[in-house]
UniProtKB/TrEMBL annotation:
Keyword Methyltransferase: no
PANTHER family named in the record: ACETYLTRANSFERASE, ACYL_TRANSF_3 DOMAIN-CONTAINING PROTEIN
Domain of life: Bacteria
Residues spanning the membrane: 40-56, 62-83, 104-122, 128-145, 182-200, 212-229, 241-262, 274-298
A molecular function GO annotation: acyltransferase activity, transferring groups other than amino-acyl groups
Entry protein name: Acyltransferase
Keywords: Acyltransferase, Membrane, Transferase, Transmembrane, Transmembrane helix
Organism: Janibacter limosus
GO biological process, any: lipopolysaccharide biosynthetic process
Pfam families: Acyl_transf_3
Record keyword Zinc present: no
One Gene Ontology term, aspect cellular component: membrane
Length: 387
Protein backbone atom coordinates (compact mmCIF):
# COMPACT_ATOMS: atom_id res chain seq x y z
CA UNK A 1 0.00 0.00 0.00
CA UNK A 2 1.36 3.39 -0.90
CA UNK A 3 2.43 5.49 2.02
CA UNK A 4 1.23 8.77 0.62
CA UNK A 5 -0.86 10.36 -2.02
CA UNK A 6 0.67 10.64 -5.45
CA UNK A 7 1.69 14.19 -6.22
CA UNK A 8 1.65 16.02 -9.53
CA UNK A 9 3.08 19.42 -10.37
CA UNK A 10 0.68 22.08 -11.52
CA UNK A 11 1.21 23.64 -14.90
CA UNK A 12 -0.67 26.23 -16.87
CA UNK A 13 -3.05 23.67 -18.36
CA UNK A 14 -3.99 22.16 -15.00
CA UNK A 15 -4.44 25.62 -13.52
CA UNK A 16 -6.79 26.45 -16.35
CA UNK A 17 -8.87 23.34 -15.74
CA UNK A 18 -8.94 23.93 -11.99
CA UNK A 19 -10.24 27.44 -12.47
CA UNK A 20 -13.71 26.10 -13.15
CA UNK A 21 -13.93 24.79 -9.59
CA UNK A 22 -14.64 26.66 -6.41
CA UNK A 23 -11.95 27.59 -3.96
CA UNK A 24 -14.00 25.55 -1.50
CA UNK A 25 -11.97 22.59 -2.77
CA UNK A 26 -8.61 22.81 -1.05
CA UNK A 27 -5.61 20.58 -0.63
CA UNK A 28 -5.91 19.84 3.06
CA UNK A 29 -4.27 16.99 4.93
CA UNK A 30 -6.55 14.49 3.25
CA UNK A 31 -4.79 15.27 -0.01
CA UNK A 32 -1.37 14.16 1.12
CA UNK A 33 -1.49 11.54 3.82
CA UNK A 34 -2.02 7.82 4.19
CA UNK A 35 -3.51 6.84 7.54
CA UNK A 36 -2.83 3.18 8.40
CA UNK A 37 -5.16 3.46 11.38
CA UNK A 38 -8.16 3.67 9.08
CA UNK A 39 -7.40 0.20 7.76
CA UNK A 40 -7.26 -1.01 11.36
CA UNK A 41 -10.60 0.59 12.14
CA UNK A 42 -12.14 -1.13 9.15
CA UNK A 43 -10.62 -4.41 10.31
CA UNK A 44 -12.21 -4.08 13.75
CA UNK A 45 -15.59 -3.35 12.15
CA UNK A 46 -15.33 -6.41 9.89
CA UNK A 47 -14.33 -8.70 12.75
CA UNK A 48 -17.15 -7.38 14.94
CA UNK A 49 -19.74 -8.15 12.26
CA UNK A 50 -18.31 -11.63 11.68
CA UNK A 51 -18.28 -12.50 15.39
CA UNK A 52 -21.83 -11.16 15.71
CA UNK A 53 -23.11 -13.34 12.88
CA UNK A 54 -21.22 -16.33 14.27
CA UNK A 55 -22.86 -15.82 17.65
CA UNK A 56 -19.52 -16.13 19.40
CA UNK A 57 -18.04 -14.05 22.18
CA UNK A 58 -19.49 -10.89 23.69
CA UNK A 59 -20.04 -8.92 20.46
CA UNK A 60 -23.85 -8.83 20.77
CA UNK A 61 -23.81 -5.30 19.28
CA UNK A 62 -21.32 -6.26 16.58
CA UNK A 63 -23.84 -5.57 13.83
CA UNK A 64 -23.11 -1.86 14.24
CA UNK A 65 -19.74 -2.48 12.64
CA UNK A 66 -21.73 -1.78 9.47
CA UNK A 67 -22.22 1.83 10.64
CA UNK A 68 -18.44 2.13 11.00
CA UNK A 69 -18.09 0.89 7.42
CA UNK A 70 -20.57 3.48 6.22
CA UNK A 71 -18.78 6.38 7.93
CA UNK A 72 -15.38 5.24 6.64
CA UNK A 73 -16.70 4.80 3.12
CA UNK A 74 -18.22 8.27 2.98
CA UNK A 75 -15.06 9.89 4.31
CA UNK A 76 -12.58 8.07 2.09
CA UNK A 77 -14.43 8.21 -1.21
CA UNK A 78 -15.42 11.84 -0.76
CA UNK A 79 -11.77 12.61 0.04
CA UNK A 80 -10.70 11.04 -3.24
CA UNK A 81 -13.32 12.93 -5.22
CA UNK A 82 -12.42 16.26 -3.63
CA UNK A 83 -8.73 15.79 -4.30
CA UNK A 84 -9.42 14.86 -7.92
CA UNK A 85 -11.48 18.01 -8.30
CA UNK A 86 -8.72 20.11 -6.77
CA UNK A 87 -5.94 18.58 -8.85
CA UNK A 88 -7.58 18.11 -12.21
CA UNK A 89 -10.36 20.65 -12.19
CA UNK A 90 -13.03 18.00 -12.67
CA UNK A 91 -14.41 14.75 -11.35
CA UNK A 92 -14.30 12.11 -14.07
CA UNK A 93 -17.45 10.14 -13.43
CA UNK A 94 -16.96 7.39 -16.01
CA UNK A 95 -13.48 6.66 -14.67
CA UNK A 96 -14.74 6.71 -11.10
CA UNK A 97 -17.55 4.24 -11.77
CA UNK A 98 -15.36 1.99 -13.93
CA UNK A 99 -12.71 1.80 -11.23
CA UNK A 100 -15.34 1.13 -8.60
CA UNK A 101 -16.81 -1.73 -10.65
CA UNK A 102 -13.37 -3.26 -11.14
CA UNK A 103 -12.80 -3.12 -7.39
CA UNK A 104 -16.15 -4.43 -6.22
CA UNK A 105 -17.59 -6.76 -8.81
CA UNK A 106 -15.05 -9.62 -8.97
CA UNK A 107 -15.49 -10.70 -5.36
CA UNK A 108 -19.24 -10.05 -5.48
CA UNK A 109 -19.63 -12.17 -8.61
CA UNK A 110 -17.57 -14.93 -6.96
CA UNK A 111 -19.80 -14.78 -3.87
CA UNK A 112 -22.94 -15.01 -5.99
CA UNK A 113 -21.52 -17.98 -7.91
CA UNK A 114 -20.75 -19.77 -4.65
CA UNK A 115 -24.29 -19.09 -3.41
CA UNK A 116 -25.83 -20.42 -6.62
CA UNK A 117 -23.65 -23.53 -6.38
CA UNK A 118 -24.73 -24.09 -2.76
CA UNK A 119 -28.39 -23.55 -3.71
CA UNK A 120 -28.13 -26.02 -6.56
CA UNK A 121 -26.52 -28.60 -4.28
CA UNK A 122 -29.36 -28.28 -1.77
CA UNK A 123 -32.19 -28.17 -4.32
CA UNK A 124 -32.99 -24.48 -3.77
CA UNK A 125 -31.76 -23.00 -7.05
CA UNK A 126 -35.13 -21.62 -8.15
CA UNK A 127 -35.54 -19.88 -4.80
CA UNK A 128 -32.04 -18.44 -4.70
CA UNK A 129 -31.49 -17.31 -8.30
CA UNK A 130 -33.80 -14.22 -8.40
CA UNK A 131 -32.47 -12.79 -5.15
CA UNK A 132 -28.88 -13.42 -6.22
CA UNK A 133 -29.45 -11.44 -9.41
CA UNK A 134 -30.98 -8.60 -7.39
CA UNK A 135 -27.90 -8.54 -5.16
CA UNK A 136 -25.54 -8.65 -8.12
CA UNK A 137 -27.10 -5.50 -9.54
CA UNK A 138 -27.26 -3.71 -6.18
CA UNK A 139 -30.99 -3.99 -5.68
CA UNK A 140 -30.70 -6.20 -2.62
CA UNK A 141 -32.27 -3.78 -0.16
CA UNK A 142 -35.37 -3.33 -2.34
CA UNK A 143 -35.60 -7.06 -2.98
CA UNK A 144 -35.19 -8.23 0.60
CA UNK A 145 -37.08 -5.46 2.38
CA UNK A 146 -40.19 -5.87 0.27
CA UNK A 147 -40.69 -9.41 1.50
CA UNK A 148 -38.56 -11.42 -0.93
CA UNK A 149 -35.65 -13.68 -0.02
CA UNK A 150 -32.01 -13.81 -1.07
CA UNK A 151 -30.73 -16.96 0.64
CA UNK A 152 -27.21 -16.66 2.06
CA UNK A 153 -27.00 -13.03 0.94
CA UNK A 154 -29.02 -11.27 3.62
CA UNK A 155 -26.02 -9.11 4.55
CA UNK A 156 -25.59 -7.59 1.08
CA UNK A 157 -28.26 -4.92 1.49
CA UNK A 158 -25.44 -2.70 2.72
CA UNK A 159 -23.73 -2.89 -0.67
CA UNK A 160 -26.88 -1.58 -2.33
CA UNK A 161 -27.06 1.38 0.06
CA UNK A 162 -23.49 2.41 -0.73
CA UNK A 163 -23.88 2.08 -4.49
CA UNK A 164 -27.13 4.04 -4.53
CA UNK A 165 -25.41 6.83 -2.59
CA UNK A 166 -22.42 6.88 -4.94
CA UNK A 167 -24.69 6.90 -7.97
CA UNK A 168 -25.81 10.35 -6.82
CA UNK A 169 -23.16 11.88 -4.57
CA UNK A 170 -20.33 12.40 -7.10
CA UNK A 171 -22.75 14.20 -9.41
CA UNK A 172 -23.89 16.46 -6.57
CA UNK A 173 -20.28 17.04 -5.60
CA UNK A 174 -19.51 18.33 -9.08
CA UNK A 175 -22.21 20.94 -8.53
CA UNK A 176 -21.07 21.75 -4.99
CA UNK A 177 -17.49 22.31 -6.20
CA UNK A 178 -18.50 24.48 -9.15
CA UNK A 179 -17.73 28.19 -9.33
CA UNK A 180 -21.15 28.73 -10.81
CA UNK A 181 -23.43 29.93 -8.05
CA UNK A 182 -26.56 28.59 -9.74
CA UNK A 183 -25.05 25.12 -10.07
CA UNK A 184 -23.96 25.13 -6.43
CA UNK A 185 -27.42 26.21 -5.35
CA UNK A 186 -29.03 23.48 -7.45
CA UNK A 187 -26.74 20.84 -5.92
CA UNK A 188 -27.55 22.03 -2.38
CA UNK A 189 -31.28 21.98 -3.08
CA UNK A 190 -31.06 18.51 -4.65
CA UNK A 191 -29.12 17.21 -1.64
CA UNK A 192 -31.64 18.68 0.82
CA UNK A 193 -34.56 17.23 -1.15
CA UNK A 194 -32.87 13.82 -1.23
CA UNK A 195 -32.38 13.80 2.54
CA UNK A 196 -35.94 15.04 3.08
CA UNK A 197 -37.27 12.16 0.97
CA UNK A 198 -35.52 9.69 3.25
CA UNK A 199 -37.07 11.26 6.35
CA UNK A 200 -40.54 11.43 4.78
CA UNK A 201 -42.73 8.38 5.54
CA UNK A 202 -43.00 5.96 2.61
CA UNK A 203 -46.01 3.80 1.67
CA UNK A 204 -46.40 0.57 3.60
CA UNK A 205 -45.08 -1.83 0.90
CA UNK A 206 -41.70 -0.05 0.88
CA UNK A 207 -41.48 1.48 4.33
CA UNK A 208 -38.81 -1.04 5.35
CA UNK A 209 -36.74 -0.06 2.31
CA UNK A 210 -36.70 3.49 3.63
CA UNK A 211 -35.33 2.09 6.88
CA UNK A 212 -32.28 0.74 5.05
CA UNK A 213 -31.48 4.21 3.70
CA UNK A 214 -31.87 5.69 7.18
CA UNK A 215 -29.48 3.04 8.45
CA UNK A 216 -26.93 4.17 5.84
CA UNK A 217 -26.92 7.76 7.07
CA UNK A 218 -23.36 7.59 8.50
CA UNK A 219 -22.15 7.70 4.88
CA UNK A 220 -23.37 11.29 4.78
CA UNK A 221 -21.65 12.15 8.06
CA UNK A 222 -18.40 10.67 6.77
CA UNK A 223 -18.70 12.63 3.53
CA UNK A 224 -19.26 15.87 5.45
CA UNK A 225 -16.20 15.15 7.57
CA UNK A 226 -14.13 14.74 4.40
CA UNK A 227 -15.37 18.16 3.25
CA UNK A 228 -14.37 19.74 6.57
CA UNK A 229 -10.94 18.10 6.53
CA UNK A 230 -10.37 19.23 2.95
CA UNK A 231 -10.83 22.82 4.09
CA UNK A 232 -7.73 22.63 6.26
CA UNK A 233 -5.08 24.13 4.01
CA UNK A 234 -2.24 23.14 6.31
CA UNK A 235 -1.57 19.56 7.35
CA UNK A 236 -1.37 20.56 11.01
CA UNK A 237 -1.85 18.14 13.85
CA UNK A 238 -4.53 18.61 16.48
CA UNK A 239 -3.75 17.14 19.90
CA UNK A 240 -7.24 17.93 21.14
CA UNK A 241 -8.85 15.93 18.35
CA UNK A 242 -6.37 13.15 18.98
CA UNK A 243 -7.45 12.99 22.62
CA UNK A 244 -11.11 13.02 21.64
CA UNK A 245 -10.43 10.30 19.09
CA UNK A 246 -8.73 8.17 21.74
CA UNK A 247 -11.78 8.43 23.99
CA UNK A 248 -14.17 7.77 21.10
CA UNK A 249 -12.25 4.62 20.17
CA UNK A 250 -12.50 3.30 23.72
CA UNK A 251 -16.26 3.88 23.77
CA UNK A 252 -16.66 2.37 20.29
CA UNK A 253 -14.73 -0.75 21.29
CA UNK A 254 -16.92 -0.97 24.39
CA UNK A 255 -20.08 -0.82 22.29
CA UNK A 256 -18.76 -3.51 19.94
CA UNK A 257 -17.50 -5.84 22.66
CA UNK A 258 -19.72 -5.56 25.73
CA UNK A 259 -21.97 -8.60 26.35
CA UNK A 260 -25.12 -6.50 26.90
CA UNK A 261 -27.48 -5.63 24.09
CA UNK A 262 -27.91 -1.88 23.69
CA UNK A 263 -31.05 -0.27 22.18
CA UNK A 264 -30.70 -0.24 18.41
CA UNK A 265 -32.05 3.31 18.19
CA UNK A 266 -28.93 4.50 20.05
CA UNK A 267 -26.56 2.83 17.66
CA UNK A 268 -27.84 3.11 14.09
CA UNK A 269 -29.45 5.50 11.63
CA UNK A 270 -29.22 9.31 11.34
CA UNK A 271 -28.44 9.67 15.05
CA UNK A 272 -26.16 6.65 15.04
CA UNK A 273 -23.99 6.77 18.12
CA UNK A 274 -21.67 4.32 16.40
CA UNK A 275 -21.41 6.49 13.30
CA UNK A 276 -20.73 9.62 15.35
CA UNK A 277 -18.09 7.84 17.42
CA UNK A 278 -16.51 6.67 14.16
CA UNK A 279 -16.32 10.28 12.97
CA UNK A 280 -14.42 11.31 16.10
CA UNK A 281 -12.06 8.36 15.68
CA UNK A 282 -11.57 9.27 12.01
CA UNK A 283 -10.89 12.91 12.83
CA UNK A 284 -8.44 11.90 15.54
CA UNK A 285 -6.50 9.59 13.22
CA UNK A 286 -6.41 12.03 10.32
CA UNK A 287 -5.65 15.21 12.24
CA UNK A 288 -3.52 13.66 15.00
CA UNK A 289 -1.77 10.72 13.28
CA UNK A 290 0.51 10.08 16.29
CA UNK A 291 -2.33 9.68 18.73
CA UNK A 292 -2.77 6.50 20.75
CA UNK A 293 -5.82 5.50 18.69
CA UNK A 294 -3.93 5.92 15.42
CA UNK A 295 -1.03 3.86 16.78
CA UNK A 296 -3.24 1.07 18.11
CA UNK A 297 -5.27 0.80 14.92
CA UNK A 298 -2.09 0.64 12.84
CA UNK A 299 -1.31 -2.76 14.40
CA UNK A 300 -0.45 -5.01 11.39
CA UNK A 301 -3.03 -7.77 12.07
CA UNK A 302 -5.81 -5.17 12.21
CA UNK A 303 -4.52 -3.51 9.06
CA UNK A 304 -4.48 -6.90 7.34
CA UNK A 305 -8.11 -7.47 8.31
CA UNK A 306 -8.95 -3.99 7.09
CA UNK A 307 -7.37 -4.44 3.69
CA UNK A 308 -9.30 -7.72 3.26
CA UNK A 309 -12.49 -6.49 4.91
CA UNK A 310 -14.53 -6.46 1.69
CA UNK A 311 -13.88 -10.15 1.09
CA UNK A 312 -14.26 -11.00 4.76
CA UNK A 313 -17.63 -9.27 4.78
CA UNK A 314 -18.86 -10.84 1.55
CA UNK A 315 -17.82 -14.43 2.17
CA UNK A 316 -18.40 -14.83 5.89
CA UNK A 317 -22.20 -14.89 5.92
CA UNK A 318 -22.82 -17.64 3.33
CA UNK A 319 -20.00 -19.73 4.82
CA UNK A 320 -21.38 -19.44 8.36
CA UNK A 321 -24.97 -20.07 7.26
CA UNK A 322 -24.08 -23.20 5.31
CA UNK A 323 -22.14 -24.58 8.28
CA UNK A 324 -24.90 -23.62 10.71
CA UNK A 325 -27.86 -25.09 8.79
CA UNK A 326 -26.47 -27.72 6.41
CA UNK A 327 -23.58 -29.31 8.31
CA UNK A 328 -24.29 -31.29 11.46
CA UNK A 329 -20.78 -32.32 12.50
CA UNK A 330 -19.80 -31.23 15.99
CA UNK A 331 -21.33 -28.49 18.15
CA UNK A 332 -22.41 -25.23 16.54
CA UNK A 333 -19.69 -23.14 18.20
CA UNK A 334 -17.06 -25.43 16.68
CA UNK A 335 -18.63 -25.10 13.22
CA UNK A 336 -18.65 -21.32 13.59
CA UNK A 337 -14.95 -21.27 14.52
CA UNK A 338 -14.24 -23.41 11.46
CA UNK A 339 -16.38 -21.04 9.41
CA UNK A 340 -14.41 -18.00 10.54
CA UNK A 341 -11.13 -19.72 9.71
CA UNK A 342 -12.49 -20.77 6.32
CA UNK A 343 -13.66 -17.20 5.66
CA UNK A 344 -10.18 -15.83 6.38
CA UNK A 345 -8.60 -18.32 3.97
CA UNK A 346 -11.19 -17.66 1.25
CA UNK A 347 -10.88 -13.88 1.62
CA UNK A 348 -7.09 -14.03 1.36
CA UNK A 349 -7.22 -16.32 -1.67
CA UNK A 350 -9.83 -14.11 -3.31
CA UNK A 351 -7.76 -11.01 -2.69
CA UNK A 352 -4.55 -12.49 -4.05
CA UNK A 353 -5.75 -14.45 -7.05
CA UNK A 354 -9.15 -13.10 -8.06
CA UNK A 355 -9.23 -9.44 -7.17
CA UNK A 356 -5.57 -8.50 -7.73
CA UNK A 357 -5.65 -8.68 -11.58
CA UNK A 358 -8.66 -6.38 -11.66
CA UNK A 359 -7.01 -4.08 -9.14
CA UNK A 360 -3.99 -3.73 -11.42
CA UNK A 361 -6.29 -2.84 -14.30
CA UNK A 362 -8.09 -0.36 -12.09
CA UNK A 363 -4.80 1.22 -11.12
CA UNK A 364 -3.82 1.67 -14.75
CA UNK A 365 -7.07 3.52 -15.32
CA UNK A 366 -6.35 5.76 -12.36
CA UNK A 367 -2.63 6.30 -12.97
CA UNK A 368 -3.10 10.00 -13.50
CA UNK A 369 -5.82 10.35 -10.91
CA UNK A 370 -5.43 11.21 -7.26
CA UNK A 371 -5.55 8.08 -5.16
CA UNK A 372 -6.30 7.49 -1.51
CA UNK A 373 -4.53 4.34 -0.29
CA UNK A 374 -7.12 3.77 2.45
CA UNK A 375 -9.95 3.92 -0.06
CA UNK A 376 -11.89 0.75 -0.89
CA UNK A 377 -11.01 1.50 -4.50
CA UNK A 378 -7.31 1.33 -3.72
CA UNK A 379 -4.91 -1.45 -4.63
CA UNK A 380 -4.81 -3.09 -1.23
CA UNK A 381 -8.03 -2.12 0.48
CA UNK A 382 -11.60 -3.23 0.58
CA UNK A 383 -15.00 -1.69 1.48
CA UNK A 384 -17.86 -2.37 2.69
CA UNK A 385 -18.63 -1.29 2.37
CA UNK A 386 -19.09 -0.89 1.26
CA UNK A 387 -19.41 -0.72 2.27
Amino acid sequence: MQAAWQHSHSNSASLSRTSSYSSLVTAGPSARTYWPGLDGLRGIAALAVIIFHAGLGPAVNGYVGVDVFFALSGFLITSLLLVEAQRHGRIRLLRFYTRRMLRLWPALVATCILVIAAAAATGQLSEAAPGTLAVLFYLGNWWMYTGRSAPLLDHTWTLAIEEHFYAVWPVLLIGLCSRRRALRAFAVIAAVVGVALIFTPWPEPITDVRGTYLRGFPIIWGSLLAWVVSRRREATSSRALGTIGNGALLVLLGVLLIPWTLPERWLTGPSSGTGILSLFVLAGIVLSPRSAAATLLAWPPLRWAGTRSYGLYLYHFPVLQVLRHHVQVGPEWFRMVVGIMATIIIAEASFRWLEAPFLRLKDRLGRHTASVPNLPLGPRTATDSRG
